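Lecture 7, part B: from sequences to assemblies.

Below are the input chains for today's worked example.
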Amino acid sequence: MKNTILLNSRPEGKPQESDFKFVNQEVGTPSNNEILIESKYVSVDPYLRGRMSDAKSYVPPFKLNEPITSGIVAEVLQSENSYFKKGDFVTGNLPWKKQQVVNPENLQKVDPEKAPLSTYLGILGLTGLTAYLGLTEIGKPKKGETLVVSGAAGAVGSVVGQIGKILGLHVVGVAGSDEKVEMLTSKFGFDKGINYKTTDNMAKAIADACPNGVDVYFDNVGGEISDGVLVNINKFARIAICGAIAVYNKTSIPKALAVQPFLVKNSALMQGFIVSNYQDKFGEASKQLAQWLQEDKLVYEETMVKGFENIPQAFLDLFEGKNKGKMVVQV
Amino acid sequence: MKNTILLNSRPEGKPQESDFKFVNQEVGTPSNNEILIESKYVSVDPYLRGRMSDAKSYVPPFKLNEPITSGIVAEVLQSENSYFKKGDFVTGNLPWKKQQVVNPENLQKVDPEKAPLSTYLGILGLTGLTAYLGLTEIGKPKKGETLVVSGAAGAVGSVVGQIGKILGLHVVGVAGSDEKVEMLTSKFGFDKGINYKTTDNMAKAIADACPNGVDVYFDNVGGEISDGVLVNINKFARIAICGAIAVYNKTSIPKALAVQPFLVKNSALMQGFIVSNYQDKFGEASKQLAQWLQEDKLVYEETMVKGFENIPQAFLDLFEGKNKGKMVVQV
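Predicted structure of the full complex, as structure tokens:
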């Protein structure tokens, strides 16, 4: 039984199934505060692509022939730790293994009574925190302003747009299918959606959807969508760069519209981030997200794939835009 | 006698002499708190190029057939104002006229005993404030970090680098001739200079000059120089965009390296600004600059052109890099 997924090779361009390798590794038994856990839900996220390369980045690259890691919700099967009990559920950044013995010091308990377990990988996990903290700390949205979100139907983007609406902004989302665009307005309450795949002229589409210009741009994708937003920014605009999925799989960084003239003429700000930059605000942010969820002010979408063996494919599907909302694998 | 310079046409690409028109306009006599002044020194600056176009920008465009305005130091010839006396010198943003009657409410008195009059257009004027406030407010330099400055031999860049040295940074400047590069180290105290015109590979040149990577980039030019810096930025780098002279004269915004992947993987910030964003800090900044100048910690370079009739040509020469330090016309 193959119970572990290793990085088999570093992708050139688009990752492939062959970049992953399934192996069987001994699980062992817990001792000295350790616990034995079984993975229930595994998060697959675009940012993992970066860690598969060995380029300098904000987190060290995955090592070849070692397991990939990502956010996982697991059940405690056996415990030598007084805090964690058999039957508890925990979450943290963990290797892609069916079962494993771990020192739980970086794991948090999660409560299946309060919210479905998978949401701790999504709206109540790093996904929600990324949306909330990127938007509030960099975007600094003010009531009445206009917010544009790219990758708007994705896990982070759909939460960003909803928070924008809660805070009283005009919210426009960009996504890659008519079905997703429809969901932006009908399910997530965005004011407008734009299907970039059927739009010839992004700059004009953004201008039409944002009659007062763009004050805040939450960017998950980069590329031509961002070029189209850039020409529509207002004075003192803030652009939070959360990801650049449009270029993750390129073998060289592509050319894009030079941003400097737009930033200087508008005194605008563009800032990249990862959620861990704001670790000191996780408590406050989690509380706010949980409250909005409870008040039904936030809804979420999940694309749930079943089976440990389908984790690599679920990850690859992210780059085809096959997910709506958070992509999660139920083991 | 032609005493006034008007905007004759909006330049397409590079401005030309024919975009300016010399005319004679009546001067009049002062009344009701007005003063009659005579221009002594006129500042020509790259940012004026932006105002010659009618594109949306941070300041309204110049109007056709009306005078260009810029920083001017003038002498009071006649006064109907109790605060300003004949023989006083004043500075402010003023039309390109030899003599004019103005309401002086936006003018400041300057003291020729404390510093040469032209410095009030340069290191003790908006140029110095731009350098100081862009570097400190956006760049947030910390002792021991590495600062790169583009347009380093220019009016703003040469001051930025010197402030970097005062604050204890490793400072690298990029300029466009061997003579300028020599001046960076010998006159302004930069640690290293790079001549971009004789450098094949900017990214490598920056890497060689910045063994610890780039923490702060003060960008006056944009274009390929900035692309070369971008690939060398460190985590949490700060990029202050002061200008984009490399693209001001292009008829369409050129393509450049996509910045988003670099910003996101380094959690880096890029922010455009104009000095007036920090008007509330002018007092404090001016005091600091004057003190450093007095202590001989700051030196400055001026390129002085003589004659009112040469103002347009002095402006055009900026785009050929013919100035070292601040370009000023002595009327």
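Note for the exam: The CA atoms of residues 125 and 264 of chain B lie 36 Å apart. Keep this in mind when comparing with the next example.
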